[in-house]
Structure formats: C-alpha cells, structure tokens
Amino acid sequence: MADEDSPLSTFVQSIRRDLNCVSDMDRNVRRNSLQRLHKRLTQKQTLPPTPVLQEAWDNDILPILVKSVSDNAESCRELAVQLLVFGIQNSIVVEQTMALCLSPLIERIGNLPMKEDSEEVRLLLIQLVKSLVLSCSLEMLSTNLEPIVQILKSSLADQYHEIKKEACDVIHSVIGRTKNFTQQSLESLLKASIPNLKHPHSKVRLATLQGINMIMKCNVPADTVSALLIPVTEALVFDHSERVRKYFLESVAEWICCGFEESNDNDDHVNLSIFRTKLSHLLPLLICGIFDASKEIGSTALALAENIGHVYTTCATNRRHNSGTADDAADNEMEYHLLLPSPFKERPGRTCCIMVQDFLEELIPHIKNSLQEWAETTKLYGARLLLAVLVFAEQQIAPYLHSIIPTLCSAVGDNNVCIAKLIVASSHILGWQTSPSSWMSQIVGQVSSSNASSVQVANGLVIMSGLLYGTKKHTGNDGLAKEVLKALINLNLQFNSHASVHNQTLAILQNLLKVFGANYSTCSSDILFILVQIQCFGSNLSQKQAVADIEKALADVMGFTSVRSLYESQAELLLGMIIADHETWSTHVHGQALFHAFLQKISNLAGPYLERLLPVLKGCVQPERDPSLRLKLLQQINFHQILDELFEIEELAVWWYSLASTVLGQIILPCGVWRVGKIGAAIRHAAMVAFGTFLRMNLCSQHDLETHLLSDQVLPVVLSCLEEDYYVDVRIVTCHVLQELLRISGNSLTDKQRGDVQKALQKRLDDSSDGVRLRILPAISLFFRTMPSSYSDASIRSFAANILVHMDDSNVEIRESVFKALQVCTSLRPAILEDLIKSKRDQHEKTEYCDRLLDQAASLQIMEATNA
C-alpha cells in the first residue's frame, strides 16, 4: 500500500472525488467529472513524475475510463476515449491499457451492426486503436492481432468516410510494425477493404489503396489476389482521380516485386515461380496504364513496366530465350516511330518485350474476354491492354493472329469512340509487326463471310485498312493485292448502298498503294473497276476527292502523266469486265449502273469502243428484257444522262455519225413502239428524248434518216407517240423529234408521208395541252418551209385555214407562234393566203395579225409581178 504522503497517494487523492463521480447516476455529474479529469490530466505542469502517473493510470484511472467507454451518455463516452488516447500517448508502458481496452473496443465497434451509434465517438475509438498499435510492444501487438483485425474489418465497413480512412491508416501502422498475420486474417482484411475502392470520395479510395498496398506486402497468395483483388482493381485504371490512378499503378508494380529477391540460392526457382504467377495476374493492370489519359501517368506506367522487365529478364534464369524483338533497321525506325502511340517515344526496351512475350499465352485470352464484356470500362481496359501487348509482343504475336483478327473486327464497331480508336491503333501496330501474307487470307475471309452484315463488313474493312496502313512500304506482292481487290469488288456490289463500305474500300485502296508500290500496276484494272463501282452507286464530296487522289497516285505509280492516260490504257480491259455479264442485267443487278459510270468516266475516250457497246445497248432494249431495265437504259441515253453527254462531245461526233443507222434502227426506234402500261409510256418518252437529242446534235446523216423514212421505220413510230394519251410529256418531246425530222429530211417526204404529217400537226394544234400546242408550231413552220412546190394548193389552203383559227387564241404565245408559222406559208404561197385571210378576217376578234399577213402577201405579189 502506498504511503499516504507519497506523491502517488497525493496525486490520486487530488483526483479521487472526480474518479468517484464518474460512476454517478447523474450524467451531468459524470460529464463534469470527466471534464475536470481531462483538464487536470492535460496540464503537464501539475502532473506528477511519469512513473507515478503510470502507476496511478494503471491502477486507478484506467479501469474507470474503460468502464466509461460504455457510458450511456455520448458526451461521457467521448471524454473517456479522449482521456484514454491522452493516457496512452503519455504512458511508458501501455500493455495494461491494451489489455483492458480491447474488450470494450470490440463491444463498441468490433461487430456489425456497431453498438456505438455516434460517428464522432467511433472515430475516436479507431484513433484509440491506432494509438495502442503504435505504442504497445511488438509482442503485445502480435498477441492481439486477431481482435485488432476484427475491429478493423468493422471500421472499414463504417458509413462514415473519415472512419474508413482512419481504419486504413491503422492497417498501415499495424503492418508497418509486424507482418505476422495469418493468411485468413489477411484475406479477411482484403475482403473488407475492397468495397471501399468504389467509394465516391477519392481520398477514401486512395487511403484504401494504401492499406491494401500494406496488406500485399505480407505476401498474400497469388490465387487470393486473382480471385479478390484483380476483378475490382481493373476499374481503378480509369479512376476519375489522377492521384488514385498513379498510386494504383505504383502499387501494382510493388505488388509484383513484393517478396521477390534476386539471389542464386537453391530456392531461386521457387521465388521465380511466385514472381511469374504475380506477373500473370498483375502485369495486365500495369501495362494497361501506359495509355492513361494523363501523359505523366502513362510515362510512369511505362517506366515501371521497363523496370520490372529488367528484373524479370535478369533473374528469370529459366525464361524463354528468343530473337523475337524487331531489328532496329534505320530505314524503318522513323516509320515505326510515327505509328507508336504516346507515351512511347521509341521502340520499347528489349527486356520488357521479352517479359510480355513470355505471357502472351495468358494475355491474349484475357484481352479477348475483356473486349467481349458489356461493361464499357472493361472493354476500354481490354482495348488499352491489347494495344500495349501488341507494341511489346512485336513479331512474337504472329501465332495468335487467328484469335486477334476476329477480336479486332468485332471491337472496332464499339459505340465508344475511345475504344474504336485504340482498336484502329492496334491494327496499325499489328500491321507493322507482321507480314501481309500472315493475315491477308484471314481478314479477307472475315469480310467475305456470307453471313456478315453490312456493319460487320465495314468493321472488317476498317481493320484491313488499319493493317495495311501499318504494313511496311513495298512489302506486298500482286497475288495478295489481287486477293484483296477481288473481295472488294464483290463487297461493293453486295453492299452498294452502304457509304461506310465505300469509305473503307477507298481507305484500303490508298493503303494498298503504299504497301505494294510498283507491284500494284498489275492490278490497276481491278482498282479502276472498284473506283467505277463506288462512283456508280453515288458518292459524296469526300468520296469523290478520295477517288481522285487514288487515281492520281495510281497514275504516278504506273508512270502515266495524267489520269486520262491511265484510263485510256485500261479502257478496253475495263469495258470487258463491265459488259461481260450484260445478258443477265436486270433492275436488280448493278451491271448497267457500272456501265453508266464507266461511260461517264471515259467520256471523250469512248469513241473507239462505241461500236463494241452497241450490241450491249441493243440487247438491253429488246422487248423480252425487263421493262424497268429498258427504261433505265434509255434514261441513260437521254439528254440528262451519259449518252447525251457523249453526244455533246465534239470528238465523238465522227464515231456516232458512222453508227447512226444502227443506233436509230436497232436501239431508239424499237423502244418508241407502243406497249401497254405506265412503264411502256415511260420507255416511249425516254426513246423520243434520246431521238430528239440524236437529231439535234446532227449525229445522223440525211441519207441514213431518209433510208429509215423510206422503209417506214421512223414516221409511224413518231406519229404514234404524238397520239400518246396517257403521258402528255411523250407528246411534248415527240413534237421536238418531228421538228428535227422535218429540218433534216422534210423535203424528202413522200406525198403520203407529208399528208400523214399534216394530219398529225393539225391534230396536235387542237391538243388539250397548251404545252403541246406551243411545241408543235415550230414543226408546222418547218412543214411549210420544206414542202415541195408541187404540193397541192388545196392541201395548203385546208391546212392554213385550220391554223388561222388559232391566231385568235386567248394565249398570246400561241397567237404569236401561229402568226410566225403563217408568215412562212405566206412567203411561199402569198396568193392562197391572201384570199384565205380576206375571207376569214371579219371572223377574228383581233385583226392585227390578219392585216400584217395581208400586207406581207400583197408585197410579195407585187414583187413577183415586178420580177415577171
């Protein structure tokens, strides 16, 4: 028993009343007592020496404070815990404190749900645990690890974020002092920490990572890491906080190397085995970070990977030695550097490449599975990992092409632009690392599959284009080029309305030029054929520019001075390819569209081939062929389409002139024959438009036209079209045809033909359409101008009388045109017209035109009399 006058007794007596009041029934009394104790114990100048305080603390103060930790009043509990923390920090020995505190700590915060309902008190309690951990002996700490782990597990699940961070700090403190944990304890701590990696507060996530980092230093089994940690930490690669991402990557590097020692001991192979196991699980996380959005973090990840690669190749005495890394040929290095994505500034180190190559067997399936997941972050993780692996794998990736190519084709169509860009960049690297012969057949088969949709085909073409873009210059051969071009020809026919297929086709052609160089010349006809395909199915401005660029590049490769010369050299071969199957053309086959586009392309170079084209045209307009095809073809011959453009080219006039009889008799006129139905009417309209253009451009000689007129091949068809009931436009365009006929061969008509024409002209002047009436009047003028002198006066008088009626028409244009036509007639037969007009003048409401015609007739008769 202490002496009553001793410092210990004196000190204890000074606080005895307050110690006793801590157990009072009144909470206010208890609180006030604790406050006084707190004030007394925190004033260092009034405290006894440390040994005296230690004994008083262990025997008198500590038991009462420990009991107050479970006080019903929150304020009392809070003061008691604060005093306990103070006591621990000022004690020499805390074993007694730890022994007494652990039980109430477990009671208050060691189980879920926690008995302590105050966040502030729970935070103080976990801080109390931290003070105990830092102050107790190592032996005492090792003995009490299990209850401490229990408290930490509960605190990590606390809803208050500050408590979570404090618990992580305690983990750091505990493991910093001892690693003598059971595997079960480590696993339970790891399980409790992992959910906090998804906490919305970045500071909590960072603190959790720091705690997990300490746990991993206790040599957690690789299987546990793979099962618990890897699936969750993949998301940390894309954490919103740069601090979290950077610390995570640094932690991964530590986890990989943790416990591995470079040695020549007999157990080196055991260490290496553990190292390899960790690498297989953690290496993907590290190299995925190389393509972080932050360049600084990406560079950090790359440096960490290089360091680990050095450790691996230095210590892995049983690793696979190979020569799989690429040569550093100076002529290729610059080109490769342009392909390498940031943060790579040069070819990666050899040691890191060897390390990644040794794990390709595990990495490739992991990448494939990640890209097939539905979660966007998982797919982005897979895309980044794929690009990194391809950079490090170099030529050793070749055996895995059968798995990588389909994966690329599937992933490039992702809606996430970042993923798609990474996949395209991967195709560039893959193209550089491998030869075209190793993947060409596979990618061609991928895009040529009969079950592939237009989207799948376009995706496959994106990858093909990317592979070719990355391929070294002038490394291909014409056999591979022909294989690609054959597939492109079929695809552009099958998916002719899909702009994405056309765009990727153009990109492939551009890249093929780079890869195959001079070898491309043997495939020039196939390339031009594809370009014609794309143009015939309609192309926008960017596609037209791309086509022009490819044509120019191809012309340069083949040594031509112009694109025109290029097409001129290939025109005959192209024409043969396009019209080879013309007998099978229909509205559902696109041969005729190709034909159209080809004729547009060769333009004024078409002359030598026109005769070869006539059988094709003739075959397509036969009555037994698809009516829609006949209509389509004629529309291509009319003024608005390709042959009209060819008619306008002066250089081709001589070619058309020599073929006029065939064009007229075997192509145009057969289509003007009346057939029932709307399509039949449309065909007649197209035929008459083509006929009118043909005559207007003087592409038919008078002799050829008169030959057909004499054989009655022309006039019956034209007059029949003038009688068109259903389609007024047929009558309108036929008026133009009749006008051109009269201009060229009007004076060669027989009397019967002239009589038939006169009846048709007269009937059209009474047409229900003013458009037809206006357009027939120029033909009437030509009829008068070309009539022979032997033509009977009675016929002229009858025809003129019918025309004269319309000179009083309500339509001013018609009145003017009728007047002009009668002026022509008056100039040729003034006496007949004078007599006729005088007899009809009084019947006209407006006599102005009549008077002018009478003046003209009188003047002409006076002139004739004078001349006589």
TrEMBL record:
Q: Name one Pfam family in it.
A: TPR_DNAAF5
Q: Its domain of life? A: Eukaryota
Q: Where is the Dynein axonemal assembly factor 5 HEAT-repeat domain positioned along the sequence?
A: 343-536
Dynein axonemal assembly factor 5 TPR repeats domain span: 21-313
Q: Which residues form a coiled coil?
A: none
PANTHER family of this UniProt entry? DYNEIN ASSEMBLY FACTOR 5, AXONEMAL, DYNEIN AXONEMAL ASSEMBLY FACTOR 5
Q: What is this protein called?
A: Uncharacterized protein
Tell me the organism. Ceratopteris richardii
